[in-house]
Amino acid sequence: MVEHLNIDKLVLADSKNVNQYTLDEIRNKIILGDALEVLKKIPDESVDLVFIDPPYFLQLPKKKLVRWNVKTKVEGVEDDWDKFESFEEYDSFIENILSQTSRIMKTNATLWIISTYHSIHRIGTIMQNLRYWLLSEIVWIKNNPMPNWLGVRFTNATETIIWAVKDKQSKKYTFNKELAKEFGIGKVGANVWVIPLCTGKERIKKEDGEKLHSTQKPVELLKRIILTTSNEGDLILDPMAGTGTTGHVAKELKRDFVMIEREKKYIEGMKERFKIAPNIKDRKKSSIEEEVEKNS
Ligand SMILES: C[S@@+](CC[C@H](N)C(=O)[O-])C[C@H]1O[C@@H](n2cnc3c(N)ncnc32)[C@H](O)[C@@H]1O
Predict the structure, then answer these.
(1) Among 27, 59, 113, 116, which is 20 to 30 Å from 7 by CA?
(2) With a threshold of 0.90, does the pTM exceed it?
């Protein structure tokens, strides 16, 4: 079991009757509720790090997608939580979340937000409009990406993670540069991380053996984010927690967390997940990393 956590007291259901939470009430809690409502109740300048893995708004066609070469069905993100009526609705959702996180972040806190080409550019613009100051972006290369199905586009093997402070004046943020160099690709430790998609034993499954969540992020990804940009004892917020990768890894690395998730089925999965500590051991380098290292 993850140390010092009482699984029975892990979840806090948000209620309309509560106007404001104290940090003590929400520290190391998974809050069942709508992030748009819950964030408003979290005190100003209270967290050290934010990780957001929002809906991608993939806008996949309604028809069944079958790979052109092997004829297998493509398992995209078909969940209701990824559906919005329009770009305007999506932008307004993201803007709302990012305005609240800016208020909740301590002056020198930083924020990470991840997405694919479908929405990361919109997100970047919204961040700059809200005065966030972008510090870096990490390109996450998946060395086991979903195969290309129709052969009409490049196979998409990357996601982008923007890292920012809430204001250009925030200078004293945490950056553990030795670790950043160790995790980055090549001798210079560039802003490219090669990490496989979450599969095998790490993937949380339902009773029928199917995966619980369509976009569970790898432990290794959160490990790098947390180690490079936070310190032990810090409080980390994830307002759209899914399977709870952020909090699970945070606790193992001696940080505290606050997570929010709207769907009960994921909350149940998180409770089970927290019974066993995540595997955060060092990972063997991939062939891409070794090749770049050799030639850089
Ligand atoms: C991309 S997934 C996050 C996956 C997560 N990082 C993981 O490792 O499992 C986005 C999550 O946001 C949740 N979500 C979407 N809108 C929300 C809202 N308004 N409030 C709370 N959660 C929300 C969805 O239910 C979904 O689980």
Answers:
(1) 113
(2) yes
Ligand 1 geometric centre to CA of 71 (Å): 30
Q: Ligand 1, residue 222: give the atom nearest the CA.
A: 8
- CA atoms 9, 5, 7, 213: torsion sign: positive
- Ramachandran bin of 162, using left for φ above 0, alpha for ψ from -120 to 50, beta for the remaining angles: beta
Cα(162) to ligand 1 centroid in Å equals 18
pLDDT tens column, 207-257: 999 999 999 999 999 999 999 999 999 999 999 999 999 999 999 999 999
Residue 207 per-residue DSSP state? T
Q: Distance from the CA of 81 to the center of ligand 1, in angstroms?
A: 7
Nearest residue (CA) to ligand 1, atom 5: 242
Structure tokens at 141: 């290369």
Task: State which H helix or E strand residue 179 sits in.
Answer: helix 177-183
> Residues lining ligand 1, judged by CB closer than 6 Å?
34-36, 53, 55, 81, 213, 215-217, 240, 242-243, 245, 260-263, 266
Q: How far is CA 236 from CA 87, 127, 155, in A?
A: 29, 19, 33
Chain center to CA of 160: 11
